[in-house]
Model the fold of this input.
Amino acid sequence: MHLAEIDRISNNTYSYFHSARVASKLVFTILMVTAFIMSDSLVKGLGLLGVILLSFWVSKIPLGIVVQLALYPAFFSSIFAVMEMGNSIVGGFIIIIRAVGAGMTMALLITTTPYTDLFSFLSLWMPTLLVDVFMFTYRGIFILIEKTTNLMKSMRLRGGYHSFNILKNARNIVGTIGVMIITSFDMSERMYKIYSLRGYHGGIKSDVELWPFRIEDVLIMLVAIGAVIGVNIR
Done:
C-alpha cells in the first residue's frame, strides 16, 4: 500500500483538505461513508464517487495512489457483487461502488491528515493507552517494512530464492518470517527503552487545534451534508 508514500503526501502536500482541521475532515468522512451506505441507485453512487474523485484532485493526490487505493475494496467487494448479480446486475455494481466509495473516503482522510494529528484528536476521546499503542504500532510498521525488504534482498543475493524449487523457497520464507517475529519483539523493547529515556511515562500530549473553523472546514462539511441530502432525494 506504499504507507511511506501516503505518510509523505499527508505531511508534505498543501491543499484545502490538508489545511482543514481534523474535526471537520472526520465529519466529512463520516457523512460521506453514510451517504455511500444510503445510496440505493447507480446514478447516486456514481455521483458520490465523482465527489470523492474531485476531492482527491483538489487535494493534489497522485492518480496512481488513488487507483491503487481503489483496487483493494473493488477486488474484495466483487465477490459479493457477483453473488448479487444473480438477482440484479445493477445491484451488484451498487455494492462495488459502495465499497470503493467508502474505502476511498477513508483513503482521502489518511492521505490528507498526518497520523500524529489523527492520534492527537483521538486522544481527546479514547483511552490514552490505546492511542499510544496505535501510535507506536504505526511507527513500527515502517521499520518492519524496511527490515523485511532488506532481508528479502539479502536472501535473494545469497541464493535463498529458487524459481523452480517451491519447497526450498517455502522453507526460506518461513525462516524469514521467524526472524522478523524475533526482530519485532526486540524492536518493541528497544523502542520502549528509547521513549522511557526521553521522558515517556504514558500518554502523548495532544496539541491538535479544534477551533475556530476556517473557510475550508465549512466548505468540506457543506459538501458532505449536501451529499447526504442528495442521496435521500427521491
About this structure: The two ends are 38 Å apart (CA to CA). The chain has a mean pLDDT of 78. The chain is about 75% helix and 0% strand.
